[in-house]
Write a structure and sequence with these properties.
Number of helices: 6
Number of strands: 9
CATH superfamily of the largest domain: Translation initiation factor 3 (IF-3), C-terminal domain
Number of domains: 2
Distance between the termini: 72 Å
Radius of gyration: 31 Å
CATH architecture of the largest domain: 2-Layer Sandwich
Structural class: alpha+beta
Order of helices and strands: HEEHEEHEHEHEEEH
CATH topology of the largest domain: Translation Initiation Factor IF3
CATH class of the largest domain: Alpha Beta
């Protein structure tokens, strides 16, 4: 346990040594920023009599708040309360501004990873033939191999809603063909004029190989499918 005999008198006996205006201004700015955001209590905001101290170039142990503040000041760093509920509270000697920056950076990285989830649409009609089905299947394999989710749907226009069982059969066949590429998130669901199913990618899936003729044909059909998806959106 660290020696606490350096401190004389009560908690209010500690008086920091005079600081230059720039250093004191920076410390005041950090303190006010901590108050404003109320994330951590820092420096003179900490009201405990004793704290458990951690940090680089610090001997871990229990110190009086006055001695802990001196240690932080000598290193030109901040005393930051990181576990207020502990007894005594746990404080760390760190650069608080740098600490806040790193916390924000981590939060942004997590948010960016979540935003990278891409959903690609594959459209069927209730009368989709085998030729079109196989093209859409290859297209879905590409999407899943790239790590995107696939939203496959059958669009029922007008009286074609009478063929919803046929549409469900198409989606079930689609899922079965993609068993090595994606995992289905649930059963087909009818939403308005669409029967929808979602697949999430399986790791390690590889894009299917194509002949030059297939690649050219798939590119042309992809453009047609994009137009059909846009038309479906306008028709709803």
């Amino acid at each position: 346990m660290a020696n606490n005999n350096h401190s004389k008198g009560g908690k209010g006996s500690y008086r920091p040594k005079p600081q230059g205006p720039n250093q004191q201004q920076k410390r005041d700015e950090r303190d006010s920023r901590g108050k404003e955001k109320d994330l951590h209590r820092i420096n003179e905001q900490i009201d405990a009599d004793k704290v458990r101290l951690t940090g680089d170039n610090v001997t871990p142990g229990i110190y009086s708040i006055e001695e802990a503040l001196r240690i932080a000041e000598r290193q030109e760093l901040d005393l930051v309360e990181i576990a207020a509920q502990a007894n005594p509270p746990v404080c760390r000697v760190i650069d608080y501004q740098k600490f806040c920056y790193q916390q924000k950076k981590k939060a942004k990285e997590i948010k960016a990873k979540a935003a990278k989830i891409v959903v690609k649409e594959i459209r069927f009609g209730p009368q989709t033939d085998d030729h079109d089905f196989n093209f859409k299947l290859r297209h879905a394999m590409d999407f899943l191999a790239d790590g995107a989710k696939v939203k496959a749907y059958v669009f029922f226009r007008g009286r074609s809603i009478l063929f919803k069982e046929q549409g469900e059969a198409i989606l079930n066949r689609f899922v079965e063909e993609l068993v090595d590429y994606g995992k289905v998130e649930g059963k087909p669901v009818l939403e308005g004029k669409r029967m929808i199913i979602m697949l999430q990618p399986k790791p390690g899936a590889q894009k299917p190989k194509r002949t030059a003729e297939q690649a050219a044909e798939d590119a042309a059909m992809a453009a047609r499918e994009a137009a059909e998806i846009a038309e479906d959106a306008a028709d709803e």
